[in-house]
Amino acid sequence: MAAITANGLEKSYGSVDALADMNVSVSRGELFGFLGPNGAGKTTTIRILTGQVTPDSGDVRVLGVDPTTDPIETRRRVGILPEQESPPSFLTPREYFDFVGKIRSLADETVAERVERWADRLGFRSKLDTLHTDLSRGQQQKVMITQAFLHEPEVVFIDEPLANLDPIVQEQVKRFLVAYAAEDNAIFLSTHNIEVAEDICTRVGIVADGKCIAERDLGGDGGSESRSDSDDASTRDSENSLLETFLAHVDDANARDVPVMQR
Amino acid sequence: MSRTFPAVSIDLTLLRTLFREEWRLHAQLFGGRRFLGFPAIIAILVAAAAVGLSATGTSTDAIVTGLHVFVFAFGLYSGTAGFAGSDMLENVFGDLSLVLSSSTTLPLSRRRLLGVFLVKDALYYGVLFVLPMASGLAPLLEGAHSVTLPLAIVALWGSLFALFVAGMVVTVAGIALRTRGVPGWVLAIAAGTGALALWTTGTHSQLWALFAGDGAAGTAMLTVSTLALGAVALRVYDPTYSRPSRTATDRFATLERALPLASAERGLVAKTLLDLGRSSGGFWKPLVSTVILLALVAAMVGIVGEITGIEPAPGIFFGGVLGLSAFTTYNWLTQFDRVEAYLAYPVSVEAVFRAKRTAFVLVNGPTVALPYVGAVLWFGATPRDAAVGAVLLAGYSLYYYGLTVFLAGFDPNEFLFDAVRFATFTLGVAVVLVPTLVAGFVVVPPSWPITLALGCSGLLFGAVGFVLSERAGSKWERVYRTG
């Protein structure tokens, strides 16, 4: 059974159609890259899959749970690393992880042990008792990565995980993500960065105009298989680099500008 | 080949850019046209307060001295580079990048930039804020009805402006010492001890007479002293100084365990309390807001009493009005997070709102209780009046809170920019407050029937507020999930 499935998702914000027949499926063990230009519908899809927003129509399942009807259970079982959120300014990382641990019903000892591990892995041990407001963007991003994995979820949704990180830490995070997915977990990675997707993902979906218009299996052994809207395009895709495939499918003029929140 | 511009030209360019930035910041914060009306509003407020105080028997000299003290305090605050470092600005605009910080990327010394920035602040606030204050006092000045009035206003402004700049420079001197490693608490103790010594020896009045009370000569002396202190402060200021990172012991766990609440709610409440407690001003902020409200209302009571000869029942009056601080307290409690930030965790929006309500009760309780007790003691409320006022204070606080949360969710500041919501809120407040104030004025001290009716009103509206805050959770959950 797929860890994540979305069929026929549609979502509009006023007169703007953010998603139009979005279909996507991710299995356990996959590190799925969700590639697309700004406003293509990536963030809206993640927000629907994590129960933050309800779709206008379509079916969604994450680990067998419907995020539309049970958003809390969905968020209990998955990890989320949003692109725009920072940790609370006036808490220290240690306090923030205490907070996340309480919300996620983790034992204090478990939180302490995992925080130690993550602090060593990403190199922010010396910053554990510094207020977030006094941390650099890169250090804040390390804290956000840690909170997403603190409860060791089976599915993780990540939006631009490497932003603001130095190259060494980027490499560590990439290796970690590959290893984590390989342990029978599923990672849903939204990114603009084609190189990153090509480097670590087992499969990518290319999003434009509110739907997934092509998929490409990157396997891990160098081989690739493609699905596309037409057979001809599919044949071409299997011969092209990911960048060429991406450019071939994405017409920037069709990308939609979607408001973050309309109230 | 590159050209070398004279230093004065660079300073003027910098000054012009800083003025433009300051103006746009205020225009953005308050709305362009609205900000344009600010000087007029300041003048009207000062004039109203001055006339009111004068009508209650306060001498003109005392009013002028009071304004000087206020302007000096305003200068002390402005010396911190105004809003430039405040959390509030960051909350409104997000991460800010100001011209003040451009010495990191441009060939400009930080010391020079700070100097020009202070000149800009002095002129900007001196003209747009201090000058209207001086103008507001016009009705009380000698020759108020003669052609010499403009001269009298200019003379008063000169004296106020000199004191305002002096306040700024004193703060800058403190900041300069901080950059040289002098701890803030040492400066605070030194300032406190100095003020105490001046007060107990009576030297403060001599100093005041010398600098602020001796016409043009005093103003000139103050100006020279200020310029000298400013030059020394800029010389002492260490441009390489950077604030050390703030660390903290793990208070979250301690606080979370100490809260007598259900386990699921404790974490959310503890986080909100820490957010507020660690921000600039901490828990004092809501208290200061309430004390300002109290002072305004107390002044109003005095004025109304003088004019009409009627004094209200203090308990009912202050209980009803101080509940309005629910709005400012809730505003502070929602300054440091957004609902969207909680959507990464397995908590419902309803739970987040419930936690905010608990945090509100914990913070707002003491915040309104202390000023209320002070007011009923000061104005000599009867025990019955004080008791019913306390019920009103608790009930109405919860009602105003519920109304705010229901209408504005996590963004109470949106009231200021949304006419319909603002009108609804105002109507919701008026429905409760106006009859209460009328009752407080009509029967003093309150009779038993009035007491019972108002007590029931407090309980009833408290319940309404609770229901509104309960429904707000599901309402905003729906809003956020449908996008």
TrEMBL record, chain A:
One of its GO terms (molecular function) is ATP binding. Residues 217-239 are annotated as: Disordered. Pfam families: ABC_tran (PF00005). Keywords: ATP-binding, Nucleotide-binding, Transport. InterPro entries: AAA+_ATPase (IPR003593), ABC_transporter-like_ATP-bd (IPR003439), ABC_transporter_ATP-binding (IPR050763), P-loop_NTPase (IPR027417). Residues 4-234 form the ABC transporter domain. The keyword Acyltransferase does not apply. The keyword ATP-binding applies. Belongs to the ABC transporter superfamily. This is ABC transporter ATP-binding protein. It comes from Natronoglomus mannanivorans. The lineage of its organism: Archaea, Methanobacteriati, Methanobacteriota, Stenosarchaea group, Halobacteria.
TrEMBL record, chain B:
The keyword Transmembrane applies. The chain crosses the membrane at residues 36-55, 62-80, 122-141, 153-177, 184-202, 208-237, 287-310, 316-333, 359-381, 387-410, 422-444, 450-468. The keyword Membrane applies. Keywords: Membrane, Transmembrane, Transmembrane helix. This is ABC-2 type transport system permease protein. It comes from Natronoglomus mannanivorans.
